[in-house]
Amino acid sequence: MTDALEKDPLVLFMPSGKRGRFPVGTPVLEAARQLGVYVESVCGGRATCGRCQIEVQEGNFAKHGIISSNDHISPVGPKEKRYAEVRTLPEGRRLSCSASIQGDLVVDVPQDTVVNAQVVRKAASDRVIERNPAVHLCYVEVDEPDMHKPLGDLDRMKVMLEKDWGYSDLQVAPYLYPEVQKILRKGNWTVTAAIHRDSPTSRPTIVALWPGLHNEAYGLACDIGSTTIAMHLVSLLSGRVVASSGTSNPQIRFGEDLMSRVSYVMMNPDGREAMTKAVRQAVSELTDKVCAEGGVARTDILDSVFVANPIMHHLFLGIDPTELGQAPFALAVSGAVSCEAKDIDLALNPGARTYLLPCIAGHVGADAAGATLAEGPHRQDRMMLLVDVGTNAEIVLGNSARTVAASSPTGPAFEGAEISCGQRAAPGAIERVRIDAATLEPRFKVIGVEPWSDEPGFAEAAEKTGITGICGSAIIEVVAEMYLSGVISADGVVDGNMAERSPRILPNGRTFSYLLHDGAQKITVTQNDVRAIQLAKAALYAGIKLLMEKLGVDSVDTIRFAGAFGSFIDPKYAMVLGLIPDCDLAEVKAVGNAAGTGALMALLNRGHRREIEETVTRIEKIETALEPHFQQLFIDAMAMPNKVDPFPKLSAVVTLPERKILADGDGGEGGGRRRRRSRD
Amino acid sequence: MTDALEKDPLVLFMPSGKRGRFPVGTPVLEAARQLGVYVESVCGGRATCGRCQIEVQEGNFAKHGIISSNDHISPVGPKEKRYAEVRTLPEGRRLSCSASIQGDLVVDVPQDTVVNAQVVRKAASDRVIERNPAVHLCYVEVDEPDMHKPLGDLDRMKVMLEKDWGYSDLQVAPYLYPEVQKILRKGNWTVTAAIHRDSPTSRPTIVALWPGLHNEAYGLACDIGSTTIAMHLVSLLSGRVVASSGTSNPQIRFGEDLMSRVSYVMMNPDGREAMTKAVRQAVSELTDKVCAEGGVARTDILDSVFVANPIMHHLFLGIDPTELGQAPFALAVSGAVSCEAKDIDLALNPGARTYLLPCIAGHVGADAAGATLAEGPHRQDRMMLLVDVGTNAEIVLGNSARTVAASSPTGPAFEGAEISCGQRAAPGAIERVRIDAATLEPRFKVIGVEPWSDEPGFAEAAEKTGITGICGSAIIEVVAEMYLSGVISADGVVDGNMAERSPRILPNGRTFSYLLHDGAQKITVTQNDVRAIQLAKAALYAGIKLLMEKLGVDSVDTIRFAGAFGSFIDPKYAMVLGLIPDCDLAEVKAVGNAAGTGALMALLNRGHRREIEETVTRIEKIETALEPHFQQLFIDAMAMPNKVDPFPKLSAVVTLPERKILADGDGGEGGGRRRRRSRD
């Protein structure tokens, strides 16, 4: 007997690497389940749903001591053959419910996104999202009614869901009570039930029913930003993203930035309702858009996950955000929210569910939680800085031992507001800038124009677009280049002395500007523009520094820029300006919409919901406004890159200017005055 | 130390009889909780809700070895004094949260219905309903927002609900998200939360919130009958029934009996919707009525429990009942239903819940389950027969070892339909009848008339009402009296030979009638009337007998008549006619609306929900139509009281006529023919 067991075939599943011995004849699906390898199945082993596909890897896997061969798996049987005829099964693929183990095997659970991928989507950060969605499709064959056993239709179905799928104590979405009879008869006593179970302490609930085999279910992952709403439509069964789209947040008509929207609520009796309606309407229209793009019916969407900043989070839930506009910035609800999609007026499947990630603090929202989940400072040992820059910068710093978070009031400068020639990223906007340190002459690139401004054909190409302004991200670059070329001092003063060397330095009242382009429109960077960027970057850096001090660290190992801003700026210039602390430049990465990636993770794996809920309770929140030291850090951070902090790693790759003192003491404003005085 | 413990005061709680020793200074409420004695408290020991009142019994309770005295409880302290001043505390009452144990005590937990009664309502059967409602009011004081601890308002409230009341992992009714902020501020950071937790496997859910202390919560218990809807409005805190009322089921306009309503659904495309709307509307109007009567706001109603026959159950839930009108009589839903009140269009508190008891079988509904719960055959060792007579009789028979149930198609005769002079119970209807066996002269009582028909003043009194017909229950009595006086034979044939003895026996075509009253209207009981009653009672008895045979018993120990019918008929006459098997007459009891009592029990104690859910799975359902033996039992039961079954206990108190054979063989119909032939 022991002998026989030792001779049981050895089966290795890839890519999980889980392995075990199983008696000859064990279905491969059964072996996977016993080992905890996630292989989807809707039909419960009837070889009809095709979700449980696997592939045998042939060869001698000496490292694992396995010679794997297609001869070591049972031949294609009649059920599998029928499936392959009706539905087509790709070459080499087998249905693991029907194929059984006959000898040693290396089994690949396909990683592609078309069918049953355990690994379903490479997030921006190249991490893998394991699937374990909150909604599970279960096909069952139900006994017909029997006068001798007067259990109801629904109750007989529950019996089979327990027998075949192990779900006991099932709740039922009430809208199904009037439907179950028709559905069972239409399916000739076969039915697919969608069962929602979010947390282990929730009772599983039947949220949808379809006659017969229903082999697809979708979910929405959505990031509601102040400016933009972004949405993914994803197959909950394969993990495949079938459509992604975005739309403007229509609340912009009530106010560009968050605080003006809060003011609108405070000053208009029905302001809150109007804004809730507007954002829900936009989410609904975006749902239409991704459904059309993906060819998916709304009724096939069974789950949805949202992230948002605190004010959007509150407005989306119908909560008055006024309290968030004033100290102590009290959230009405900070924990994760779980409800039905219809509770937030979202018409998906009538039983569809909604989950909102928790907020971290009054200014650090569910979007920051999503980004944290996606980037995972709490999952690793290195010190990670995660920054999401908007009107407020949300900052998370830490590692698996300890994580802290704060928001810092960067203001709208990074978004191009308050910048004299700022404009949004559109054709005609300057997006890249270089300044020759010797001549102080610039060259630049314009959105919609292929050549740089100093390359042949630029003028002709730029005629179509015009040269209309500087886009949000380029403002970082131009100010950094001005600093590197000596146009401005470390304290941010445009050096009027340079006017002697270059006609690009123009007097502008009592200060000076840099003329970036002289055409139909004069595009200049003024002293005020530089000041606005300095204020914004000082706020961001001071917030980061505060968190570093809390953790007692002098440097960070790796930096993640989340959000659109991070995707467009060059990490080198961000560091030259001192937005972020010194770090190996290769370790500064833009991760795109990390908040949306976090939403996607929580959609595809309910374990990630528990992970972020638990993580948020452990994140220590720092309120910058309450930290007496913040003011000094802010002042130090007005200088470029910083008045007191060294940037050794940056200095190794970029030659930073010698510190040129145009004014003593406190940098910017004082410097300006001093210089003006010296010119009087 | 051991010595000290032995000298700890001994406290005995009445009426539970639970006792224990507690250190001097232990609050009485705490002692009660440790012993599992149910004492309500909303404020959590702050001496503000007044729900935890107790009374000290003074005296020497030798049996218990306790000398109890008001000196053995702490004197009234400042908090209790303040409560007594503001709210008034009845003489002798103490707040158990504030009063502490100082010596041996006998403590009475008041049984009255005004405050905090553990025993809250005597059901018709004199049993006691212990309280353990699914909704619990919990007052908490919530920390104010703190920038250093950015938990949301809701989340800080949850912290206190866990700390003070032990509720962890709380869910929240989504409508509260936008409300919680305002409510907490309005209550100056104090709040009362209503927490719903039905079964131990459900997550507790916050279903309602009020600023400050909210000291009352109500529930509805409702029985939806085909003809009448009955409702109780009950305090969930004290158990007091504050209003009870009834209304006609407006579905009557779609059809008098259940089957004609099913036909209406089958023949009208929007018939199901119309009937669902009608019954929900009636429940809503009845809710208004009990709320007005009890002076209760709808928003203070947090829970509701419904019972109904299977067709009403389905229509109320919006389920097409067509399947119930044809074999195999398949219920769409048989198990208990738990949902929100708003799911069935019932506007109570927005978070209010609804529970429907399970159905036993396609013809044995949640009403029968309610009656079973109320009367409890499954809770006792004696063999109990529980009968609810309507168009279908629902029959439950059994004891704690085994219980069986069936329905039997009695038809509408017992409700007065198909009876030539039948009418509903209203002034002018004959309600009691006696027939002199010697003279065959009747005397009777008329609804709305005080004297019997042979007493002085009857004629004058009856002038106001008239004498218009025989009400449903009296038809049992008159047929039984006709049998006892020899007007009809044991086979139910009106004896034409009697016409020679009395002018009351009138020929009526080929058969004879009995003239009960000769006035403005001739009120007669025809041969067809007797046949209708015989058919109905034979169906009922045969169903009962079938269940007795299933259990292998020859007799039952006790009989319960549920429903209006049972309240009006005389058990003796029911037995004389053979509606029910032989039994000690003192053991035949009418229990009124037992189904409604069952709903009330399930409302006041969620343990009763589990009890009936579990009981229903154990009840064996017998489908009379499928039992070959049923036909013979039915034929035997056509005779009075029965062709083959003896009635020894009945015979001991009522002289049953000698068996008079007017026709051989199979009783009724054959007898009639034979007699007619003999007169030809």
Automatic annotation (TrEMBL), chains A, B:
Domain 2Fe-2S ferredoxin-type: 9-113
The protein, known as: DUF4445 domain-containing protein
One annotated GO molecular function: iron-sulfur cluster binding
InterPro entries attached to this UniProt entry: 2Fe-2S_ferredoxin-like_sf, 2Fe-2S_ferredoxin-type, Beta-grasp_dom_sf, Corrinoid_activation_enz, Raco-like_middle, Raco-like_middle_sf, RACo_C, RACo_linker
CDD domains in the cross-refs: fer2
Recorded superkingdom: Bacteria
High-level lineage: Bacteria, Pseudomonadati, Pseudomonadota, Alphaproteobacteria, Hyphomicrobiales
